Amino acid sequence: MAMVSPMASSLLQLNCIDLINVNSAVQTADTICTCSGCPAPSTRTSMGLRACVLLAIVTALLARSHADRVLADGFFEHKTQAATGQTTGTWAVLFYESLPEEPAALGEFEALTQPALEHQIFLARVDISTNPQLRHRFRAVGSPAVVLFRHQKMYRYEGTLSRDSFLHWATEAYEASPGAKVPQPPPAFRLLMEPLYSYVDGRVGAAVGVLVGAAILVTLLAARHERDRKRKPRWKQH
Questions:
Q1: Upper half-sphere CA count for residue 180 (Cβ side, 13 Å)
Q2: What is the tally of structural domains in the chain?
Q3: Contact at 8 Å (CB) between 73 and 134?
Q4: Is residue 112 located within the same domain as residue 49?
Q5: CB neighbour list of residue 104: distance below 8 Å, 6 or more residues apart
Q6: How far apart (Å, rounded) are the C-alpha atoms in residues 17 and 60?
Q7: E-strand spans in 4-152?
Q8: What stretches in the chain show pLDDT beneath 50?
Protein backbone atom coordinates (compact mmCIF):
# COMPACT_ATOMS: atom_id res chain seq x y z
CA MET A 1 0.00 0.00 0.00
CA ALA A 2 1.35 3.43 -0.88
CA MET A 3 2.33 5.53 2.13
CA VAL A 4 2.28 9.31 1.95
CA SER A 5 4.86 11.11 4.05
CA PRO A 6 4.36 14.64 5.39
CA MET A 7 6.98 15.76 2.92
CA ALA A 8 5.10 14.25 -0.01
CA SER A 9 1.92 15.95 1.17
CA SER A 10 3.75 19.28 1.32
CA LEU A 11 5.08 18.78 -2.16
CA LEU A 12 1.60 18.08 -3.41
CA GLN A 13 0.26 21.23 -1.82
CA LEU A 14 3.13 23.38 -3.12
CA ASN A 15 3.01 21.78 -6.60
CA CYS A 16 6.70 20.87 -6.32
CA ILE A 17 6.06 17.84 -8.51
CA ASP A 18 5.82 20.27 -11.40
CA LEU A 19 9.39 21.45 -10.87
CA ILE A 20 11.77 20.32 -13.59
CA ASN A 21 14.91 22.06 -12.45
CA VAL A 22 16.50 20.01 -9.67
CA ASN A 23 18.29 23.02 -8.23
CA SER A 24 14.96 24.80 -7.76
CA ALA A 25 13.57 21.70 -6.05
CA VAL A 26 16.57 21.59 -3.72
CA GLN A 27 16.03 25.23 -2.69
CA THR A 28 12.36 24.52 -2.03
CA ALA A 29 13.24 21.45 0.01
CA ASP A 30 15.33 23.54 2.41
CA THR A 31 12.10 24.78 4.02
CA ILE A 32 9.96 21.64 3.91
CA CYS A 33 12.27 18.62 4.05
CA THR A 34 11.76 17.20 7.54
CA CYS A 35 11.80 13.47 6.83
CA SER A 36 14.03 11.29 9.00
CA GLY A 37 16.26 10.36 6.07
CA CYS A 38 17.51 13.93 5.56
CA PRO A 39 20.87 14.86 7.15
CA ALA A 40 21.08 17.64 9.67
CA PRO A 41 21.15 21.14 8.13
CA SER A 42 24.79 21.62 9.13
CA THR A 43 25.97 18.49 7.26
CA ARG A 44 23.50 18.51 4.40
CA THR A 45 25.25 17.86 1.09
CA SER A 46 24.07 18.79 -2.34
CA MET A 47 23.96 15.18 -3.51
CA GLY A 48 22.09 13.89 -0.47
CA LEU A 49 19.62 16.75 -0.56
CA ARG A 50 18.89 16.20 -4.23
CA ALA A 51 18.36 12.49 -3.62
CA CYS A 52 15.90 13.31 -0.83
CA VAL A 53 13.99 15.76 -3.01
CA LEU A 54 13.84 13.37 -5.95
CA LEU A 55 12.56 10.60 -3.67
CA ALA A 56 9.85 12.89 -2.31
CA ILE A 57 8.87 13.99 -5.81
CA VAL A 58 8.55 10.38 -6.96
CA THR A 59 6.52 9.55 -3.86
CA ALA A 60 4.22 12.49 -4.48
CA LEU A 61 3.78 11.53 -8.13
CA LEU A 62 2.94 7.96 -7.22
CA ALA A 63 0.51 9.07 -4.54
CA ARG A 64 -1.12 11.55 -6.87
CA SER A 65 -1.47 9.04 -9.72
CA HIS A 66 -2.79 6.39 -7.34
CA ALA A 67 -5.33 8.75 -5.83
CA ASP A 68 -6.62 10.28 -9.04
CA ARG A 69 -8.22 7.19 -10.55
CA VAL A 70 -10.82 6.91 -13.23
CA LEU A 71 -11.76 3.23 -13.26
CA ALA A 72 -13.32 1.37 -16.17
CA ASP A 73 -14.57 -2.06 -17.20
CA GLY A 74 -11.20 -3.33 -18.35
CA PHE A 75 -9.19 -2.75 -15.16
CA PHE A 76 -11.52 -2.05 -12.22
CA GLU A 77 -10.81 -5.39 -10.55
CA HIS A 78 -7.12 -5.31 -11.41
CA LYS A 79 -6.67 -1.95 -9.67
CA THR A 80 -8.95 -2.37 -6.67
CA GLN A 81 -9.01 -6.16 -6.20
CA ALA A 82 -12.34 -5.48 -4.54
CA ALA A 83 -13.52 -9.10 -4.78
CA THR A 84 -10.21 -10.90 -5.20
CA GLY A 85 -8.14 -10.16 -2.11
CA GLN A 86 -7.99 -6.35 -1.97
CA THR A 87 -4.25 -6.25 -1.38
CA THR A 88 -4.10 -2.83 -3.08
CA GLY A 89 -5.74 -1.15 -0.10
CA THR A 90 -9.05 0.45 0.80
CA TRP A 91 -10.98 2.18 -1.96
CA ALA A 92 -13.90 4.59 -1.99
CA VAL A 93 -15.50 4.73 -5.43
CA LEU A 94 -18.06 7.17 -6.76
CA PHE A 95 -20.45 5.57 -9.25
CA TYR A 96 -22.13 8.22 -11.38
CA GLU A 97 -23.57 8.94 -14.80
CA SER A 98 -22.15 11.78 -16.87
CA LEU A 99 -25.22 12.09 -19.07
CA PRO A 100 -26.39 14.73 -19.72
CA GLU A 101 -23.79 16.28 -17.38
CA GLU A 102 -21.61 15.29 -14.47
CA PRO A 103 -23.31 15.47 -11.05
CA ALA A 104 -22.41 18.12 -8.52
CA ALA A 105 -21.25 15.35 -6.18
CA LEU A 106 -18.27 14.71 -8.45
CA GLY A 107 -16.50 17.95 -7.51
CA GLU A 108 -17.20 17.46 -3.81
CA PHE A 109 -15.89 13.90 -4.01
CA GLU A 110 -12.67 14.88 -5.78
CA ALA A 111 -12.00 17.49 -3.08
CA LEU A 112 -11.69 14.60 -0.61
CA THR A 113 -8.84 12.93 -2.51
CA GLN A 114 -5.93 14.27 -0.47
CA PRO A 115 -7.59 14.04 2.98
CA ALA A 116 -8.64 10.45 2.25
CA LEU A 117 -5.16 9.55 1.03
CA GLU A 118 -3.73 10.67 4.36
CA HIS A 119 -5.84 7.88 5.88
CA GLN A 120 -4.67 5.34 3.26
CA ILE A 121 -8.01 5.43 1.44
CA PHE A 122 -7.80 5.71 -2.32
CA LEU A 123 -10.58 7.55 -4.11
CA ALA A 124 -11.70 6.72 -7.63
CA ARG A 125 -14.72 7.21 -9.85
CA VAL A 126 -16.65 5.18 -12.40
CA ASP A 127 -18.87 6.60 -15.11
CA ILE A 128 -21.39 3.79 -15.43
CA SER A 129 -22.90 5.36 -18.54
CA THR A 130 -19.76 4.32 -20.45
CA ASN A 131 -18.93 1.12 -18.54
CA PRO A 132 -21.79 -1.37 -19.02
CA GLN A 133 -20.02 -4.26 -17.28
CA LEU A 134 -19.53 -2.30 -14.06
CA ARG A 135 -23.05 -0.92 -14.37
CA HIS A 136 -24.40 -4.47 -14.45
CA ARG A 137 -22.03 -5.78 -11.78
CA PHE A 138 -22.90 -3.04 -9.27
CA ARG A 139 -26.49 -2.49 -10.38
CA ALA A 140 -27.72 -2.85 -6.79
CA VAL A 141 -25.68 0.19 -5.72
CA GLY A 142 -27.54 2.82 -7.72
CA SER A 143 -26.22 6.13 -8.99
CA PRO A 144 -24.82 8.47 -7.88
CA ALA A 145 -23.39 6.55 -4.95
CA VAL A 146 -20.15 6.43 -2.96
CA VAL A 147 -19.15 2.88 -2.07
CA LEU A 148 -16.36 1.92 0.33
CA PHE A 149 -14.53 -1.30 -0.57
CA ARG A 150 -12.83 -2.76 2.47
CA HIS A 151 -11.89 -6.37 3.25
CA GLN A 152 -13.80 -7.71 0.23
CA LYS A 153 -17.03 -6.09 1.40
CA MET A 154 -18.74 -2.95 0.17
CA TYR A 155 -20.54 -0.26 2.14
CA ARG A 156 -22.67 2.49 0.64
CA TYR A 157 -22.16 5.96 2.09
CA GLU A 158 -25.39 7.83 2.85
CA GLY A 159 -24.02 11.03 4.38
CA THR A 160 -22.81 14.35 3.03
CA LEU A 161 -19.47 14.72 1.27
CA SER A 162 -18.00 17.05 3.87
CA ARG A 163 -14.46 16.20 4.93
CA ASP A 164 -15.14 15.41 8.58
CA SER A 165 -18.33 13.47 7.93
CA PHE A 166 -16.88 11.30 5.19
CA LEU A 167 -13.56 10.57 6.89
CA HIS A 168 -15.27 9.65 10.16
CA TRP A 169 -17.50 7.21 8.33
CA ALA A 170 -14.80 5.78 6.06
CA THR A 171 -12.39 5.11 8.94
CA GLU A 172 -14.73 4.12 11.78
CA ALA A 173 -18.49 4.47 11.39
CA TYR A 174 -18.70 2.33 8.24
CA GLU A 175 -18.80 -0.74 10.49
CA ALA A 176 -22.31 0.27 11.57
CA SER A 177 -23.48 0.38 7.95
CA PRO A 178 -24.99 -2.70 6.32
CA GLY A 179 -22.20 -4.26 4.31
CA ALA A 180 -22.54 -6.60 1.38
CA LYS A 181 -20.19 -9.04 -0.28
CA VAL A 182 -18.53 -7.59 -3.35
CA PRO A 183 -19.97 -9.28 -6.45
CA GLN A 184 -17.46 -11.26 -8.43
CA PRO A 185 -16.31 -9.91 -11.80
CA PRO A 186 -17.86 -11.62 -14.81
CA PRO A 187 -16.01 -14.69 -16.12
CA ALA A 188 -13.69 -14.39 -19.08
CA PHE A 189 -16.22 -16.05 -21.39
CA ARG A 190 -18.82 -13.48 -20.44
CA LEU A 191 -16.37 -10.67 -21.15
CA LEU A 192 -15.55 -12.24 -24.51
CA MET A 193 -19.21 -12.53 -25.43
CA GLU A 194 -20.27 -9.18 -23.97
CA PRO A 195 -20.28 -7.36 -27.35
CA LEU A 196 -22.52 -10.07 -28.78
CA TYR A 197 -24.85 -9.96 -25.77
CA SER A 198 -25.11 -6.20 -26.06
CA TYR A 199 -25.80 -6.46 -29.77
CA VAL A 200 -28.53 -9.05 -29.23
CA ASP A 201 -30.05 -7.30 -26.19
CA GLY A 202 -30.34 -4.07 -28.11
CA ARG A 203 -32.14 -5.76 -30.96
CA VAL A 204 -34.48 -8.18 -29.21
CA GLY A 205 -37.56 -6.20 -30.25
CA ALA A 206 -36.44 -6.01 -33.84
CA ALA A 207 -35.59 -9.72 -33.91
CA VAL A 208 -39.01 -10.68 -32.54
CA GLY A 209 -40.69 -8.43 -35.08
CA VAL A 210 -38.75 -10.04 -37.94
CA LEU A 211 -39.62 -13.55 -36.76
CA VAL A 212 -43.31 -12.73 -36.41
CA GLY A 213 -43.34 -11.07 -39.80
CA ALA A 214 -41.60 -14.04 -41.38
CA ALA A 215 -44.08 -16.45 -39.80
CA ILE A 216 -47.03 -14.43 -41.09
CA LEU A 217 -45.50 -14.26 -44.58
CA VAL A 218 -44.89 -18.02 -44.67
CA THR A 219 -48.47 -18.67 -43.53
CA LEU A 220 -49.91 -16.37 -46.21
CA LEU A 221 -47.79 -17.94 -48.95
CA ALA A 222 -48.80 -21.43 -47.86
CA ALA A 223 -52.48 -20.47 -47.83
CA ARG A 224 -52.20 -18.91 -51.28
CA HIS A 225 -50.45 -21.97 -52.64
CA GLU A 226 -53.15 -24.24 -51.27
CA ARG A 227 -55.89 -22.02 -52.70
CA ASP A 228 -54.25 -21.97 -56.12
CA ARG A 229 -53.85 -25.72 -56.05
CA LYS A 230 -57.54 -26.23 -55.41
CA ARG A 231 -58.50 -23.84 -58.20
CA LYS A 232 -56.28 -25.52 -60.77
CA PRO A 233 -58.51 -27.36 -63.36
CA ARG A 234 -58.23 -31.11 -63.56
CA TRP A 235 -58.06 -32.59 -67.07
CA LYS A 236 -60.12 -35.69 -67.68
CA GLN A 237 -58.29 -38.65 -69.07
CA HIS A 238 -59.91 -40.35 -72.12
A1: 10
A2: 3
A3: yes
A4: no
A5: none
A6: 7
A7: 69-70, 90-96, 121-127, 145-150
A8: 1-22, 26, 58, 61-64, 66-67, 189
